[in-house]
């Protein structure tokens, strides 16, 4: 899709619907996986209550578990460790863009100054995803870690 984020998913009685296809293109799935993960992390981070935060984390875990099941034996070929690395870097990049970058206004971090503790936590999380992508636990639900 190229731009999978929470406002692109509509829940209906008959299932999920995806909208917002204007950026659709052929690319690596790690972009959408990382983009969606980043937005769910931000929703959890800025949640007004613990239930909303839990729901966002649960949605991410179920999304990743289902993604792995659908890929089946082709996971390593189609996504694998490199896809996890790319997704993690994308998480960090998207959080930075939304927390301190060009897309801060009118979103979850709008109006917060760069020195605000919430912004600082988002920047630290983003930086960790970029600098140490395979050390992050964000994508553990994909079951990709061979050492555990």
Looking across the biggest beta sheet, what order are the strands in? 1-2
CA radius of gyration: 15 Å
Portion of residues in helices?
Answer: 40-55%
Beta-strand proportion: 5-15%
Topology:
Blueprint: E1 9-12, E2 15-18, H1 29-45, H2 50-71, H3 75-78, H4 80-99, H5 117-131
Antiparallel strand pairs: 1-2
Helix pairs in contact: 1-2, 1-4, 4-5
What's this, in brief?
This protein is mainly alpha-helical and 148 residues long. Helix content is 53%, strand content 5%.
What does this structure look like?
- The protein starts with 8 loop residues before the first strand and ends in a 17-residue tail after the last helix.
- The protein has one domain.
- The chain is globular, with a radius of gyration of 15 Å.
- It has 148 residues and is mainly alpha-helical.
- Helix 1 runs antiparallel to helix 2, helix 1 crosses helix 4 and helix 4 runs antiparallel to helix 5.
- A two-stranded antiparallel sheet has the order 1-2.
- The protein has 5 helices and 2 strands, in the order E-E-H-H-H-H-H.
């Amino acid at each position: 899709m190229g731009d999978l984020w929470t406002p692109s998913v509509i829940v209906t009685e008959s299932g999920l619907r995806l909208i917002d296809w204007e950026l659709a293109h052929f690319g690596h799935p790690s972009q959408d996986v990382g983009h969606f993960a980043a937005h769910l992390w931000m929703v959890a981070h800025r949640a007004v209550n613990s239930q909303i935060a839990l729901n966002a984390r649960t949605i991410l875990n179920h999304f990743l578990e289902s993604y792995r099941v659908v890929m089946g034996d082709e996971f390593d070929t189609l996504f694998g460790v490199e896809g996890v690395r790319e997704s993690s870097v994308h998480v960090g990049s998207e959080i930075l863009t939304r927390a301190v970058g060009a897309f801060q206004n009118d979103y979850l971090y709008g109006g917060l100054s760069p020195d605000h503790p919430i912004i600082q936590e988002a920047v630290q999380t983003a930086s960790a995803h970029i600098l140490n992508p395979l050390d992050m636990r964000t994508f553990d639900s994909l079951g990709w870690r061979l050492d555990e």
